Amino acid sequence: MTFQRIAIIGLGLLGGSVGLAVREYLPDAVTTGYDANPATRSRASERGLVQTVCNTAAEAAQTADLVIFCVPVGAMGAAAAEIAGSVQPGAIISDVGSSKESVLKALADALPDNVIIPAHPVAGTENSGPDAGFASLFRNRWCIITPPEGTDPAQVEALSGFWQALGANVEVMTPSHHDLVLAVTSHLPHLIAYTIVGTASDLEDVTQSEVIKYSAGGFRDFTRIAASDPTMWRDVFLTNKDAVLEMLQRFTEDLTALQRAIRVGDGEQLFDHFTRTRAVRRSIIEQGQDDARPDFGRSDHTGS
Ligand code: NAP
Question: 44: which of 49, 126, 292, 294 fits an S-S bond (Cβ 3.0–4.6 Å)?
Answer without folding.
Answer: 49
